[in-house]
Fold:
Amino acid sequence: MRAPRASALLALSLRGAEALAQRPGVVPLEAPSRVWLPAGRFPLGASEGVLTAGQALCHREPGLERPLVVLQCGLSQVLGVAALTSPCARFAFEAEGSPYTALLQGFSMDRTEVTVEAFDRCVRAGRCASGWLWRAMPRFGGASQPVVGLRWDDARAYCAWAGGRLPTEAEWERAARGPDGRPFPWGWQWDPRRANHGALRVSCTDELDGYAYTAPVGAFPSGASPDGILDLAGNVAEYTTDRATSPLAPHPSGVWVSPSGPSQGPGHVAHGGSWREPSWRLRATARRFIAEDERPEDVGFRCVYE
Structure:
């Protein structure tokens, strides 16, 4: 993780939520509403208490005794082959790293994940690649469902067209955890009714949330963050701009100004958990490695604007 010199602290803007100015040459959009997150100092990363609580939630998940189900529901891709036998072991949480403090400038973030309809406008404008997944598989293709089946480069191209960019990992985590560092957008305790999530069973889904696959964005208003941002836990995991090594290297402790990930790496970090991931994977500190050319059916994105 890189940090500018201490003098960069003076550059932190405490400006209010003024209107976002369009950049020259950017195609105007009927963009989804955006939420302003003011500058400040925020506790991020996983403290000992956060990791212990995550392990406890993992141990309460039904289905852990069935390794083939654990494999089928994708946890081996997240945690490695060891997830087949020990998904709740301490080493499976180590990528969440050490607690650190981030000093962030103010930014705006999309209130919801980017939808199929919004991404399709970018495709028609010739600025985004036509995706195969939501066109070929109707269960992912509803206009108000989050767009999935994209490479990281596809998500980055959309955000550039919309006049923004993908969030850094620190920005995404601050949005999901609010100013107080909570593990879930809605608070400190897991609540299966507040997000579209999965379970460790043959279908990888949980009937309690009402959706077998992706839900229309904003379908769980009770799961909003303190700032009013929706679906930061569940529905689809979300790309960040940070590159990553595999396995994911934990964050170093300390105080960091506008932190970002390594300058090189074979993939990128995603956060938030998805419709096919179980409870403890929806915690804001849980991290997922996405290879450069991967097109996951449960990963989407949202944009930020400076």
